[in-house]
Amino acid sequence: MSVRPVLVVGAAGRVGGAVVASLRSREVPVRALVRDPAALRARRVGVEVARLDLRDPSTFAGAVAGGGALFVVRPPAIARVGPTVNAFVDAAVAAGVDHAVLASVAGADGNRLVPHHRIETHLRATGVAHTLLRPGFFAQNLLGPYREDIRRDDRLYVPAGRGQVAFVDVRDIGEVAAQVLVEPSGHVGAAYELTGPQAVTFDEVAALLSDALGRPIRYEPASALGYARHLRRDGLPLAQTLVQTVLHVGLRRGDAAAVDPTLGRLLGHQPRTVADVIADHTHLWRPER
Q1: Residue environment code for 230-251, b if the CB has 16+ CB neighbours within 10 A, otherwise e
Q2: DSSP letters along 131-148, please?
Q3: Tally: H helices and E strands in the chain
């Protein structure tokens, strides 16, 4: 009897990719769901690949057919989750998916401004067995959204004030998600707040970057409006700009400062620190020659 594959939304992204890597390390059958299957196959990820465009419902049936468990993550570019992410979840449940793991965000249960709140609410309403992962701020933001500011301008520019952040590594989230997907017993109905092992300010992150890169990196606190303008100048869509700005402004209030031991307990070992992430990726911030 064949084992139904785990369906992974956003397998080409950082979070989904980390989940795929962790599932592969466990030799679990995986179906990677991506908008461009050819591009992912070219990377030789060694898993089944299927097309999923969350804005195109005609891709839903083929993506979910024969699947077992499901990992869901909201693509940052999608703000209207009703006809996209939530509609896809409905299709997966109707096709017989028996357990869904959602990568949400910390505090989504009480923050109606973030799209993840609506996904969580809808997932509960479906009645399918589910687990909510609510990670805090990803240390990998340093490799993506913040990378060009660091590489080109030697600065971190976010509206976080002097707030502390318990940065979490997506590799640890991928490991926990794989564990819950493969062994759901004891996790069904749970909502886990997942943080890194220590809270640091952006000044401290800038100092870590300075030491690792051998050149001074400064933290420049942005205003909310200044940050929104900065994102728009970089071409980010308006809806995505608003979500990112709201999440970052919350850092001033300490929304991501609390250190929660849950991640380490689930992993069975100490989570990675932001210093670990910086040490592993210093080549990404080298100026172009």
Answers
A1: bbeeeebeeebbebbbebbbbb
A2: EEEEE--BGGGGTTTTHH
A3: 12, 11
Tens digits of per-residue pLDDT, 111-140? 787 889 999 999 999 999 999 999 999 999
Of how many residues is the chain composed? 289
Residues 6+ apart with CB under 8 A from 282: 212, 213
Tell me whether residue 236 is in a domain.
no
> In terms of Cα–Cα distance, which of 134, 164, 167 is closest to 272?
167
Residue 175 and residue 19: Cα distance in Å, rounded?
7
| Percentage of the chain lying above the pLDDT 90 cut | 80
Which domain, by its residues, includes 134?
A: 6-139+167-196+257-271
User: Mapping DSSP to helix (H, G, I), strand (E, B) and coil, where does residue 23 land?
Assistant: helix
Residues 222, 229 contacting (CB under 8 angstroms): no
Alpha carbon distance 94, 70 (integer Å): 13
CATH number at residue 101: 3.40.50.720
* Residue 11 to residue 20: CA distance in whole angstroms: 7
> Helix, strand or coil for residue 261?
coil
Q: Which residues contact 135 (CB under 8 A, 6 or more apart)?
A: 103, 104, 105, 106, 168, 170, 173, 194, 195
Q: Is 183 domain-assigned?
A: yes
pLDDT digits (tens, 9 = 90+) for 159-182: 999 999 999 999 999 999 999 999
Position 214 in a domain: no
Count how many domains the chain has: 1
Domain presence at residue 281: no
> Which of 25, 21, 4, 3 has its CA nearest to residue 12?
21
Task: List, for residues 51-81, the tens digit of each pLDDT value.
Answer: 999 999 999 999 999 999 999 999 988 889 9
